[in-house]
Amino acid sequence: MDSISLQAMAKINLGLDVLRRREDGYHEVKMVMQTVGICDRLEFGRLRSDEIRIRTDKAQLPCDGGNLIHKAVRLVRENYRISDGVAVRLEKNIPIAAGMAGGSTDAAAAIHAMDRLFDLGLSLEEKQKIGVKIGADVPYCLMGGTALCEGIGEILTPLPAVPQAFLVVAKPEVDVSTKYVYENLHADRLKEHPDIDGMVGSIRSGDLGKIAERLGNVLETVTVKRHPVIADIKAFLKMQGALNALMSGSGPTVFGIFKEKEAAREAYGAMLKRGYTRQVYLTEFAGRADDGCGA
Ligand code: ATP
User: Fold this and answer.
1) Which alpha helices (DSSP H) does the chain contain, by range?
2) What is the pLDDT of residue 289?
């Protein structure tokens, strides 16, 4: 195979709890991840030279070793002694530095693409072993769908697909550093924790109302304090009829869950009109495979 095109899907967190800070500085987490229909599009082609050449439509993204795609391609090449190079074109649609795993999902797509381009026949576990060297979210992104992630994010339990629902996703125009958020979270002093076990139970019973009720993200305690616009957007989405709304990952992206497509569409229009941000998306929960790009 000489070339391949793939979609790399974004994720949101339906639940995110931090249990403790380990001695090595990593945080032990318990989170529920969910794929959504916002996706990047990537094209990979084999090169005769040994170059890794990345082109993207977003000028602010690095195209060298700083891009997670570069890191993924390099790791697979080293592991499997591949001498050919790879050319990559990235159409970036997932908001950047948003808490939607945009870089990690591109890295996961690069591992899938390398496997197919060079006919490596890798299992999911083999791909995940490479992925975790790039970032804690990459093993999940390789699998997608609905999953419980524990440890530093690398211990995965696939969960049944959630019921259909429609989402309004908004990324406020503020920059959030994941490092800052974790450094300012004092896991041992937290008074409240999201009910992750309850969320898993609600997903297993397929109850959208209970899933919405149990949304919770402990990182909001840090990010919302710094960027109150996140709380404003959450309140606005609920006022527009969302079952509930939450910040994803370390933020600043917020999503609202709607049962009906028409209500979500109206809230999407209202959100654009309200002018908190221009980065607003109308999408839905997505499943495990390449099932469409609803953005
Ligand atoms: P997470 O939800 O996993 O914390 P995020 O959505 O907060 O991720 P990303 O969009 O992955 O953050 O980007 C974080 C930084 O990583 C960016 O500032 C960017 O410079 C760098 N980066 C490297 N490669 C990529 C890529 N392929 N796509 C997006 N960002 C990338």
Assistant:
1) 68-79, 102-117, 124-131, 138-143, 178-183, 196-204, 208-213, 220-226, 229-239, 261-274
2) 64
